[in-house]
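S1.2 Input.
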Amino acid sequence: MIKIVTVPAALLCLTMPLSSFAVVAFSNGLADTTSAGRPNGVAFSDGLIAADDFSVTFDTQLGWATFQAYEYVAASWSNMLDYRIALDSSGKPGSGAITDGADSGVAVKEFARDDNSGSGYSIGGASYDLVTYGFDLGGVGVTAGTTYWLVLDLGTTAPTSGPTRLLWAYNSEPSGVLVSNDSGTNWFNFPAGGTAFDIQVPLPPTLPLMAVGLFGARVVRRRRASRQR
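S1.3 Output.
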């Protein structure tokens, strides 16, 4: 009976993608919806590229990124974005990328909510939902203690209806976000605050297997104890 329970579970762990077992290696915080001048964010639909910096505390491979954005309730978007992970160059994204140039990804809508009143968040007189998007970073390797930049660009895929369609949400972190309106040649500080995002990395596959093993051992002990009674 123990084999029936634990062996299929172990095989399942081996066949599942590493992204199924992920931990947050860096978090820049959640969107600030309550402070003065919030909600708000960097407006992708203005043709801007936005970037914010991050680092990790251990050598790893990047698995998944999530970011929070205010999306105009009537906006339409293909959910395609260009992104790159860039090395720091004197406090701004370097021209090169540790990813293969500017990669395209599908931003998966993971969660969306209004302001709990049913009317949406009001920005510039328009109504927005706060949306969490996630996309695959492809397993690129990063080094502990090194500063990197997450660079996001919706380009021609930006939502095409409404006022300012999609804004990378500000949080309560100190200002760190940079913007560029010339494809990253020049970068300018956006003093309004940091942006809401996190970076997730896969757990080593041995950890889920260890969990299965511990579970199996516990079941064996319980069965033996019940037989001795």
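S1.4 Remarks. The first strand starts at residue 22 and ends at 27.
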